[in-house]
Amino acid sequence: MKRKNIISLILGLLLGIVLLLLWLRFVDITELTSRMKEVRLTPVILSLVCYMLAYFIRSFRWYLLIPKEVNVGVLRTWLISLSGNFINYLIPIRAGELAKAWLLKRQRGLPVMQGLSGIFVDKSFDTIGILVVLLLLPFLKVRFSGGMLGLLGILVIVFAVSFLVLILAIRNSGKVSRILQALFSWLPKRVKTKTDGYIEAFVQGMATFRHQPGKLLAAMGLTALGLVFDGLYFWLIFIAFGITYPFAMVLFGYTLINLSYALPQPPAQLGSNEWMMIIIFSAGFGLTKPDASAVMAFAHIFTAAVIVLTGIISLSINGGQLLSKIFKGETLDE
Predict the structure, then answer these.
(1) Domain boundaries, the chain
(2) pTM value?
(3) Second label for 47, Cα 20 to 30 Å away, from 23, 181, 227, 300?
(4) Are 195 and 223 in contact (CB under 8 A)?
(5) pLDDT value of residue 46
């Protein structure tokens, strides 16, 4: 792994530890442990099903964006997605996206840049969650803390930019590529060359919807369905603790937490998830801190176990040497 990435990981890990220690100062560990023992198994099992379905739906969305001649298959696409998700969880520098493109090249011969084109477009659909959050706002009683307002402001800008790029790419992909590349003209030549390639791949991927509006609608529909299953997963965790909470509020809050992952995160979202839960559900929705802390602590441990287990299984099928290549700093973009 490159030195700057190692430094970034170490700093992120230290930040996560600090955030976690600060969070623990606000939590009664004895009460938290006691609440964990009261968790009901049936809702947890159902939440696991919803969690896996949400990821399968997103991987199917990506599958629709992969050229048909690649013939990768739905199951294989899902396994590659799980591997990428695991790598992103461990190494929050979006290395998982490049890893997915590398696996497509290794297994099906698809050039890495062409694979990244579909991956970039696929990830851009996750910004639809911002639209869902905005549509839910009029129906929810939310106290907007400074942190939540700041997060909403950033997400609205991200959504507006993504939507604008999509529309312009469909109309004139060449012009959009030139404009975006000009914005990064200040980068060193070597970095700019690679960045220009990524921009070109992303914009060309967006431009494919010009002649395939049905695929665009399908991707949007799958995104919405994935968000619903995300919300059901987290809502069932509330149920497991015996906490009755409106589904719409859980969907709103959990979507915001997921969207916050677009911002820099410590490895495994260490500490950041716990604080996002406090900011959104306690400061914003009035959920008691003990309830919010218990739900997030359990959900964090639970999802970490699922991500690690499915990641190890999928990597063993896809090729376990991928992780070692990343840590050794070997290139994946060739």
Answers:
(1) 3-23+51-328
(2) 0.84
(3) 23
(4) no
(5) 98
The 3 state secondary structure assigned to the chain is CCHHHHHHHHHHHHHHHHHHHHHHHCCCHHHHHHHHHCCCHHHHHHHHHHHHHHHHHHHHHHHHHCCHHHCCCHHHHHHHHHHHHHHHHHCCCCHHHHHHHHHHHHHHCCCHHHHHHHHHHHHHHHHHHHHHHHHHHHHCCCCCCHHHHHHHHHHHHHHHHHHHHHHHHHHCHHHHHHHHHHHCCCCCHHHHHHHHHHHHHHHHHHHHHHCCHHHHHHHHHHHHHHHHHHHHHHHHHHHHCCCCCCHHHHHHHHHHHHHHHHCCCCHHHCCHHHHHHHHHHHHHCCCCHHHHHHHHHHHHHHHHHHHHHHHHHHHHHHCCHHHHHHHHCCCCCC
Q: Which of 216, 204, 203 is nearest to 64 (CA)?
A: 216
Tokens 């299984």 sit on residue: 313
Q: What are 280-299's pLDDT values in tens digits? A: 888 888 888 889 999 999 99
Residue 54: pLDDT band (50, 70, 90) is very high
- Nearest alpha carbon to residue 86 among 304, 332, 321: 304
In order of 16, 148, 160, 238, 298, the CA distances from 294 in angstroms are 18, 21, 35, 9, 6
Instruction: Say yes or no to pLDDT of 115 above 70.
Output: yes
Cβ burial of 146 (10 Å; 0-12, 13-18, 19+) is: exposed
Q: Which amino acid belongs to residue 169?
A: A
Asked if residue 105 has pLDDT above 90, the reply is no
pLDDT in tens, 126-181: 888 878 877 887 777 777 767 677 777 887 887 788 778 777 777 777 787 888 88
